[in-house]
Write a structure and sequence with these properties.
496 residues, mainly beta, globular, disordered N terminus, disordered C terminus
Length: 496
């Protein structure tokens, strides 16, 4: 039975448990007919502490089941103070998780494993380190990523080096037990990828997307003083066990996206989930009792030019409910296009018909119009600007404006700009036809419904075609449920 939302910012169509802290997606695999999605999880509170692996699985990316906690620290063991990030592989009748074993008395987070032979319900930890001897020169070492290629198993581990370079270290194995160190797969000093972001002094959560002779190395840019920063991608190709990288770029242009993980689907697609952290003050997080969520699963592909292209997984179209907005027209000034619930999927084709004039869409989340999220076309910069400076009337919410490249925005008047915007209560994911994405968190306080507006400045004219659908919640069975399946509405989320 649907109830009023206990927390209007808790997502309905993004994965996370109903309470406590989560961060990096881990252990992504397809095994025995199910997609498995694990994640860093503190079962005791909304802080980064007591790291376990939480676990969901699904046959179709739409109907999910929460399984018992997959990995738990072993008192006195190699992972006594936390089961940190890694991945998983399907090998015959077993799932094997590779993860970082954390102890507060050890600087490194060396690799260990656990395995399941009942489709992820129970796990048996290895108890010892998989790679006990670490390579010389490493000053940070964590986050294994294992895959099978050309008849052998391969593993990357993120690191920082004493010479000031970050590195993804390569290992190989015939049997998943004995691993030989092959050297750095890629290493490099920090490079700027945006005015406010570089590739980092260390790399976390390395992921390797590869197909048809080309590849892309996806890395979390880490700083020893500031911690996690942004997610970068190096396009390129492998030669003789080394990755020949081209110019790095941001994988996601938003402020609240990190530590993405890849899952090779059985139909040949690559799927990717990321961690969207909170963009509000810690006091509010403690009051809410939860922090972090996983992004929509994204289909990721390599384009001809080597760039990584992202779009929401096709299965998610099935979450669309009734069409809330259908409109095509033009405006000078401001026009209301319609209203939506707090979880919706919007597509837009915007055609500025006055050269050099800013225009775009506004999501208004309060009746008086004082609270809103803007998506604007900047014709001078050739970018879309997402502005959340007025997106919450609560001063504990973080503001800022963020930009995503959009060459069509710089073109002559009349060139259309297309976009897809998926909003789920406190997260917005923006996707462009170029395959670029921007993820941010925001915290409306004004109640629902929300309204969509088209806007132009001055005497500018904007043509628009906009469609929006409210979204149904995932079907979710939690580990604590004793009866039949329940939707997210049953745990404090109401149908949009």
């Amino acid at each position: 039975m649907s109830v009023l939302p206990a927390d209007p910012h808790l997502p309905a169509v993004h994965l996370r448990p109903p309470r406590n802290w989560i961060n990096d997606p881990n252990g992504l695999a397809f095994h025995d007919g199910h997609y498995h999605v694990c994640f860093q999880y503190n079962p005791y509170g909304p802080e980064h502490a007591n790291m376990h692996w939480g676990h969901f699985r699904s046959p179709d990316l739409l109907t999910w089941e929460e399984l018992p906690v997959a990995l738990t620290p072993t008192p006195g063991g190699e992972d006594a103070d936390g089961c940190f990030s890694g991945n998983a592989v399907s090998d015959g009748d077993r799932l094997i998780a590779f993860y970082s074993a954390y102890r507060i008395d050890r600087w490194a987070q060396p690799v260990t494993t656990a395995e399941s032979r009942d489709n992820g319900v129970t796990w048996t930890p290895r108890g010892t380190l998989l790679v006990p001897e670490l390579p010389d020169g490493a000053t940070m070492y964590r986050d294994p990523y294992v895959w099978r290629e050309a008849g052998r198993w391969r593993m990357l581990v993120g690191s920082a080096q004493a010479d000031g370079q970050a590195a993804a270290l390569l290992y190989e194995s015939e049997d998943l037990e004995q691993w030989g160190y092959q050297g750095p797969f890629l290493a490099g000093a920090p490079q700027l990828v945006a005015p406010d972001a570089d590739t980092g002094l260390g790399w976390e959560c390395p992921q390797y997307l590869h197909t048809n002779g080309r590849g892309a190395l996806i890395l979390g840019a880490w700083d020893p003083e500031l911690g996690p920063r942004r997610t970068v991608v190096y396009p390129g190709r492998e030669k003789d066990g080394r990755f020949l990288a081209e110019t790095p770029t941001l994988l996601d242009h938003g402020p609240d996206f990190y530590a993405p993980a890849l899952l090779p689907a059985p139909d040949g697609r690559w799927l990717l989930w990321g961690w969207a952290w909170e963009a509000r003050d810690p006091e509010w997080v403690r009051e809410a009792g939860w922090a972090g969520l996983l992004t929509f699963p994204r289909e990721v592909t390599l384009a001809e030019d080597g760039s990584v292209r992202q779009r929401p997984a096709a299965e998610l179209l099935a979450l669309r409910d009734e069409r809330a907005v259908t409109v095509a027209d033009e405006t000078t000034g401001t026009v209301v296009l319609g209203t939506v619930g707090p979880s919706f999927d919007l597509t837009a084709r915007l055609e500025p018909r006055t050269a050099g004039t800013a225009s775009g869409l506004r999501l208004v989340t309060s009746a008086d119009g004082a609270e809103y999220l803007d998506v604007r076309i900047d014709p001078d910069a050739g970018e879309l600007v997402v502005d959340r400076n007025h997106a919450s009337l609560d001063p504990r919410a973080h503001g800022g404006t963020f930009r995503i490249p959009c060459p069509e925005a710089r073109a002559a008047a009349g060139t259309p700009v297309e976009l897809r915007l998926v909003v789920d209560r406190s997260i917005a994911e923006l996707y462009l036809p170029s395959g670029q994405a921007l993820t941010l968190r925001f915290y409306p306080t004004g109640g629902t419904p929300w309204r969509i507006e088209a806007r132009t400045e001055g005497e500018g004219v904007l043509g628009y075609t906009v469609g929006a659908w409210n979204l149904r919640p995932y079907t979710m069975r939690y580990a604590s449920d004793t009866n039949a399946e329940s939707t997210r509405a049953d745990v404090g989320l109401v149908h949009p």
